[in-house]
Design a protein that fits this description.
Blueprint (H helix, E strand, L loop, with lengths): L25 E5 L2 E5 L26 E3 L4 E5 L4 H13 L2 E5 L8 E5 L1 H13 L4 E5 L2 H14 L15 H14 L3 E8 L5 E7 L7 E6 L6 H16 L5 H9 L1 E5 L4 H9 L54 H11 L5 E9 L3 E4 L11 H19 L4 E4 H4 L7 H7 L6 E6 L19 H15 L4
Length: 463
């Protein structure tokens, strides 16, 4: 199986979980025109939505955040001083880093609003760096993606992997697997802030088997992570009677897979803001910003510590308190309900091509660091051998950057899951497609899912 990125250079860096602390000025598209809003007022005060359990959405389904004129740029800082310039600009301006340079010589990818582009490129140039514009108009990329979803099919791919599904389509797909295959059980592990089911499946033969747990899509805009989880479900469901390896995996383990753990955010990326990352909860600390980063909301490490923000407008807002988000609580409850049987925990993201493991909130090695590295290397090596895709392997703290409150650290340290991993999927940095970032074309769903599944099988000890 040849990877579409196999020919690219292996020079890549991890994606950033943005730290910019701002409420961005955006334009909202509607079917009848466009209008500007200096702030997204998320409370419908007249309807008494403040602090209620059922928040009124910030926009209706006919209004979309418009990224016309927003640019995506790549920069390679060569010195520590240049790195510090980027960190400072991140906090000073309305910047959304898609990938952050951790060390001199590694690339950064950043989205810049049109009103800040001249200032940003000037500051970067004054610091001796070159900012290369990879995307001149992000909205065109989003429009192309929507057009592709409506009109493009890929006959070589199964129907469910020809395009990115909506949340309700995920629900129907999981119900269909459950109805058709007796080793698949449809489950709901909780409700989102807006009342949507957080869905999943249990796949096994027999009872009391070691559990392999997946949470996917905790960051709403990372669509290929959702799709990859669905592919894993599809393989375990449909191939049980046809593939001896799959049969072994189902007979020996119980697979608990949750492809859309942030359904409110995922729906919002389809209806309103393709770049939305967080949940859609209403904070008690803000009347103008909505949502928290559920992957900063777990009770592990100093709450709202390194790699997070205490400001509700920030993309990495840690939440009002640990487990303030229904979505993170649902994952917590699902893991704790069977923690004595939890064997593996996988958290799927994109992009950047990485196999990572604890810790994220500290630079100390995990007690079983070498075992974790061996498992991750086994997965990465299987992918490399089969497709030519090369993943970076290492602890989260050293491979991406330090971050507090992640699901993987919590599963490992608090729930006792000794094999916990965070995977960053396609595309790789500095490939021909890296600037697409979270908007990986649908034709790459299947190869991405296939190579990820190949690596996971190898990692857990099954070729």
């Amino acid at each position: 199986m040849a990877s579409p990125w196999a020919h690219q250079r292996d020079k890549r860096n991890r994606p950033l979980y943005p730290r910019a602390d701002f409420c961005a000025r955006v334009t909202v598209r509607s079917e009848t025109g466009r209008f500007a809003m200096s702030r997204l007022w998320i409370f419908a005060l007249a309807l008494g939505a403040v602090g209620s359990a059922a928040a009124v959405p910030v926009t209706n389904a006919t209004q979309r955040v418009d990224y016309t004129g927003h640019s995506v740029l790549s920069i390679v800082p060569e010195t520590s001083d240049q790195l510090n310039v980027l960190f400072r600009l991140e906090n000073e301006m309305e910047l959304d880093f898609w990938a952050e340079a951790k060390l001199p010589g590694s690339p950064a990818v950043v989205r810049v609003a049109p009103e800040n582009l001249l200032k940003f490129t000037k500051k970067v140039s004054e610091a001796g760096m070159t900012a290369k514009i990879e995307v001149k108009n992000l909205q065109k990329l989003i429009d192309d993606e929507r057009h592709e979803a409506r009109f493009t099919t890929y006959s070589s791919a199964p129907l469910r992997f020809q395009r990115y599904l909506r949340n309700e389509e995920f629900e129907k797909a999981l119900m269909s697997y459950s109805e058709k295959y007796d080793h698949v059980e449809y489950t709901v592990i909780g409700k989102s802030y807006e009342g949507r089911d957080i869905i999943g499946v249990h796949i096994t033969k027999g009872k009391n088997k070691p559990i392999i747990f997946f949470e996917c899509g905790i960051h709403a805009r990372e669509w290929v992570a959702h799709a990859t989880c669905l592919y894993i479900i599809d393989q375990l469901a449909t191939m049980y009677e046809k593939d001896e390896t799959i049969k072994h995996l189902v007979d020996e383990y119980e697979w608990r897979i949750h492809p859309v753990v942030n359904p409110d955010g995922y729906v919002y990326t389809h209806t309103s803001d393709r770049m939305w990352r967080k949940t859609r909860s209403v904070s008690k600390k803000s009347k103008i910003c909505q949502g928290a980063d559920a992957n900063r909301n777990f009770d592990v490490g100093p709450f709202c510590g390194v790699g997070t923000s205490k400001k509700p407008c920030a993309d990495t807002y840690c939440g009002d308190s640990p487990f303030s988000e229904p979505e993170s609580r649902a994952i917590k409850n699902a893991v704790e309900a069977a923690k004595d049987r939890m064997s593996f925990y996988f958290s799927l993201h994109n992009f950047g091509l990485m196999w990572m493991f604890p810790y994220a909130y500290t630079n100390k090695d995990a007690p079983n660091h070498q075992d974790l590295r061996t498992i991750a290397e086994r997965g990465a090596e299987a992918i490399l051998k089969a497709t030519g895709t090369k993943d970076t392997v290492g602890p989260i703290d050293k491979t991406i950057y330090p971050v507090t409150g992640s699901s993987v650290d919590w599963a490992y340290e608090k729930a006792g899951v000794k094999n916990a991993f965070a995977l960053e999927l396609q595309p790789p940095m500095l490939s021909s497609n890296f600037w697409r970032g979270f908007m990986l074309p649908a034709k790459h769903i299947l190869p991405t899912a296939q190579e990820t599944w190949l690596g996971i099988r190898a990692a857990i000890g099954t070729p």
